[in-house]
Amino acid sequence: MSPGHQIIGAIQLLLLLLCSLLLPTPSMTSLLKTETDDFIDWWQHAVFYQIYPRSFKDSNGDGIGDLQGIISKLPYLAETGITATWLSPIFQSPMVDFGYDISDFKSIQSEYGSMSDFEELVHTAARLGIKIILDFVPNHSSNQHEWFKKSAARAAGFEDYYVWADGQLDELGVRQPPNNWQSVFYGSAWEWNEQRKQYYLHQFTKEQPDLNFRNPVVVQAMDEVLLFWLNKGVAGFRIDAVNHLFENETLPDEPLSGQSTDPLSYDYTKHIYTKDLPEVLSMVQHWRKLLDDYTAQHPEDSTRIMMTEAYAGLTELMNYYEDSSGIMGSHLPFNFHFITDVNRESDARDFVYNVEKWLIYMPRGHAANWVIGNHDNPRVASRFGSASVDAMNMLLMTLPGVAVTYNGEELGMEDYRDISWKETVDPPARNAGELKFKMVSRDPVRTPFQWSNATNAGFSEAAKTWLPVHPNYLEMNLEAQQQAAKSHYRVYRSLIELRKLPILRRGKFSIEPLSRAVFAFKRTLKDYDTIIVVINVSGKEQLVNLTDFIDRPQQLIVEVAGVDSSYEPGAFIFLANNRSVSQQLRLSASAGIVLTEKQWGMSPQRRALVRQLIKSFNVVLVALLMYNLWRHKWTKVNFN
Ligand code: NOJ
Q1: pLDDT tens digits, residue range 504-537?
Q2: Cα angle vertex 245, ends 242, 249, to 5°?
Q3: Residue 194 pLDDT more than 80?
Q4: Catalytic residue list contains 309
């Protein structure tokens, strides 16, 4: 070998040494890994999309949504960026409360499809990366359930499946219910059963008798229901009305609340003996253990989770996460505070307080969650006004933790308030009567999904749908919003996209009211451009001075702006230190904006690119070296 070749060989060896130094060390690799997986479990940052199956998509033209309809729309969910969905009940039911009155916990309602449709749904969803969460309704069954029929007949083993009690005689000797407990849906919570000659308890409609969770056989039977669906491949459960599970066994009258003068109204009494009893927590913990054990026994799939529905006090909700002795309960006790604790009268301080209180009280190591709509409450556009739709979705998607979207909220669908008494089907609305039904009806929020401007908004080919379609569907529909250059749906999609950034997954959070009209919050993470969200909750345009909120006068870039915004995504906003009006952010009424605060120096994205380039460079060098060694035959390299 010539001296020239020897020199080349030596240089190559040197390069190889250098390369090995430059190649990522184990700690660098784990740093890169952290950036992609975040060590966050799938559910801790998911967007859970609630589907109300009856109103989502009808595949067979009977005017009622069904499982094949949902299957046909799974690609839409995947394309939108949804990775988990929870379905309101799809089980066999006489449909008095539209599926929340279940007559067989282990079979599918025939108008929704078959068990094989359900299996297809789970498999197709899994293929598209979407997890299915089912609604588990433990507090009650339908009065058409075999268990209830047997219990009413005092069949052996079923006597105590439900909550039965004798009545009492009044001064006139007339039989009366055991006490003054009221149903959530109006009227006494007790119904006389002629066959058994006793009253049974129903916290909801009289067709929804309360199961008796003090009976271990019932607990066991409901555990089997959970296992049955887990074996079908579901990723977990949303647990219905969980805080109603237990009542005081001695059946005392509840004290008057002073909030209503109507003794038949649920608000007439304080529910100290029928709601939030300590036994509820033990049951939630029992189900958590069942889910954790199942996950441990079936590690091929990810964590099976529980989301609990309880309109309860903050302390109770926090105990669901984890009690004072550290026993785990619900993965996600639903946070309804954006539904119950703020409205269009609320100012920026109310919103800030609302967010802070959850985060302050939440035990460490848990995931926050934010629910802005569901099938029981007016839609965002109807609660806060349609101008607030984008701002509320911005809030939902950029706060730390889990986001829960009710189907249609990605379009800003509105309640259809003009459903007539004749068309009204919701049980509490029917109970309220023709004069008052509009005050409580949940039908307006359950109208069919507005897919397009075709017949019945593309929901169904039927002559009549189970609830009327909102007449605004001609303009307000998904197809129109997909085609438009700017739309609520487009904003929603960009927010889901943005949400994938590590900074929104695990960045630190701080929030402040900037005035009564406007609040802002920041997400910060080392090496990442800070994200700033500014929301105007007032009905007037606001000029916002951000220079007090951000540390240095910065260059801000618009990430996401609402449909009515004058700012375009990608635009730079220059905020100088002096407070001249032209350097303030202009936010129209009820609008929000998501900005990134550019860091000086190399951006994290660019840093990652450089790292990638070095890696690729190394690979090329090693390949070159190997090639040369092969050409000049390694054995012939002589350094002497
Ligand atoms: C809560 C559900 O969300 C609601 O729709 C239902 O009517 C009641 N629980 C009773 O199951």
Answers
A1: 999 999 999 999 999 999 999 998 999 999 999 9
A2: 155
A3: yes
A4: yes
Q: Which residues contact 412 (CB under 8 A, 6 or more apart)?
A: 380, 381, 386, 389, 390, 476, 488
**What SS3 class is residue 88?**
coil
Q: Which residue reads 């539904």 in tokens? A: 339
Q: For ligand 1, atom 3, which residue shows the shortest CA distance?
A: 376
Hey, whose CA ends up nearest to atom 4 of ligand 1?
Answer: 376
**Å from CA of 306 to ligand 1 middle:** 17
Task: Kindly report the pTM of this predicted structure.
Answer: 0.89
Cβ of 305 closer than 6 Å to ligand 1, yes or no, is: no
Beta bridge partners of 509: 523
pLDDT, tens digit (0-9, with 9 covering 90-100), for 349-400:
999 999 999 999 999 999 999 999 999 999 999 999 999 999 999 999 999 9
Strands in 482-633 per DSSP E: 508-513, 518-524, 530-536, 542-544, 555-561, 572-574, 585-587, 592-597
Q: Within a 10 A sphere around the Cβ of 92, how many other Cβ atoms?
A: 21
- Work out the burial of residue 299: count CB atoms within 10 Å of its CB; fewer than 13 is exposed, 13-18 middle, 19 or more buried: exposed
- Best mutation site among 50, 97, 105, 336 for ligand 1 pocket (most ligand atoms within 8 Å of CB): 97
Active site residue 475: no
State the closest ligand 1 atom to the C-alpha of 140, by its place in the atom list counted from 1: 11
